[in-house]
Every structure is written in structure tokens, then in C-alpha cells.
Amino acid sequence: MARTVLVTGGNRGIGLAIARAFAEQGDRVAVTHRGSGAPEGLFGVQCDITDPAQVDAAFTEIEKELGPVEVLVANAGITDDTLLLRMSEEQFERVVDTNLKGSFRVSKRASSKMLRAKWGRIIYISSVVGLYGGPGQVNYAASKAGLVGMARSITRELGSRNITANVVAPGFIETEMTAVLSEARQAEIIKAVPAGRLASADEVAAVVTFVASDAAAYINGAVIPVDGGLGMGH
Ligand code: NDP
Fold first, then answer.
1. Cα 75 to ligand 1 centre (Å)
2. Is 120:70 a contact under the CB 8 Å cutoff?
3. Does ligand 1 have an atom closer than 6 angstroms to the CB of 143?
4. Is 138 within the bounds of a domain?
5. Is 224 touching ligand 1 by the criterion CB < 6 Å?
6. Is the CB–ligand 1 distance for residue 15 below 6 Å?
7. What is the ipTM of this complex?
8. What's the pTM?
9. How far is CA 227 from CA 66, 113, 159, 192, in A?
10. 182/101: higher pLDDT
């Protein structure tokens, strides 16, 4: 059965691969963008997830065009890396406001309609770094670890209503976010990953569509790594 799916930050990178995977299986897919427009075949809504009014307007537009959001993929995220001693209040707040609070805003807006429908899937795109930590990533790791507590609290609140909230935690994926890493850093990462390579965004998308499927109805409050074994044990 076709569903209405919203992927925040689905205009590029991992989010776009996720959006395309849902579209390929016949779902109605909306993506947010901040001015770039939507890629062909996807319904685009302009939305900065740090602005609650824009979040509300985007959901209203999607509800009008495609129906209430049944599957929410909170994927939009940023990094702003620097060592703890150099990290400003602003750098910390901006990353947390986007990655964590932005996810809260879209979850809250989506959940009232999911409750009414007595069905819903919320999937947070976290990171291996959320639980593993990363030098220079105090802000990013804190925001990504926060998504685990968010998903698990939502699971306890809404789990009895056929609503699942899960976290997918990618390792290092070939996107613009990792393209900016130096070759030396990329080689270091590859050495640390048991799989011995980075992953493609499609490998993340395949897990996300599974978690959203009926087959995954009993997976709730889970953290599912897609990291080639990098974070094993957390
Ligand atoms: P990209 O940098 O390629 O894309 C980021 C996306 O987030 C863009 O669509 C961007 O929109 C959107 N975005 C950022 N800020 C906002 C905002 N305030 N409001 C709305 N949209 C926003 O990232 P990736 O595709 O690599 O990453 C996607 C997710 O996966 C992120 O949450 C990231 O933390 C996570 N991740 C990535 C890994 C990797 O190796 N790449 C590894 C682990 C996790 P716009 O086009 O408008 O800028």
C-alpha cells in the first residue's frame, strides 16, 4: 500500500537516496529543500527545520497535496566541527538546533496525525559518531546521541498505537559531507572500518525502507547501525 513519506533534507545526499528508494516502491514522497527545489519526481517543500513556522507550513502543504505524513525520515543534518576548547556557544547551538531540535519539531508535527491514523513510522538518521564519539564533534555527537533518547521516549509514549520510532546510524557514507575530508583522513577511516570501505547512500536507504515496512512492525526504539562494523559494541 502506497504511503505518504516525508524525508527532511531529501533534496540531496543520503536523504535523496532514501527519498528515491521510497518513490521506487510506489510511495508518495515529499522532500524538504532550502531553495534548491526538489529533484525530479519528488514533491518539494521549502522548509528550514530550525523554523517551527516553516515546519508547520511544509506539513500543511504536504497534507494538502499528498495526505498526512505516515512515514517521517528525519534526515536533515549539519556538522560544524572543531575541538572542544575552540567550540563557540553558537557552533554548539546551531548544530543541536538543526540535528536534534529540528528532529523534535518535525516529529511533534507528524505525530498528531500518526496518532489519529493509529499508524506511523519515525526514523531518525543519526550517526555512528553519536555513540562512538568523534574528536572535534562534541556538538554533532551530542545531537546525534540525543536522537536515541528521543526515539526511545517516543517509543514509550506511542508504541502501543502502531507507531514506531527508530534510529538508523550510518558510518561513513560517500556524500558531500564526507567528500570534504582529506584523503589522509579518508584512508584512516577506511582502515578502521572492518568492511574496509565507505558505504553508498543506497545502502542506508535500503535499511530505512525496511524499518518503515510492515515487516519491521516489531522493531521499536532500536538503533540500527549501517557502518560496516565500525561502531561494534555500542
Ligand atoms: P549533506 O550535507 O549531503 O546534506 C544535508 C541535508 O540536510 C541537505 O539536504 C540539507 O539541505 C539539509 N539541511 C541541513 N540543514 C537544514 C535545515 N536547517 N533545514 C532543512 N534542511 C537542512 O549530508 P548527508 O546526506 O551526508 O547526511 C544526511 C544525514 O546523514 C545527516 O543527518 C548526517 O548527519 C547523517 N550522516 C551522514 C554520514 C555521512 O557519512 N555522510 C554519516 C552518518 C550520518 P540543503 O540542500 O538546503 O542544504
1. 6
2. yes
3. no
4. yes
5. no
6. yes
7. 0.99
8. 0.98
9. 33, 33, 27, 11
10. 101
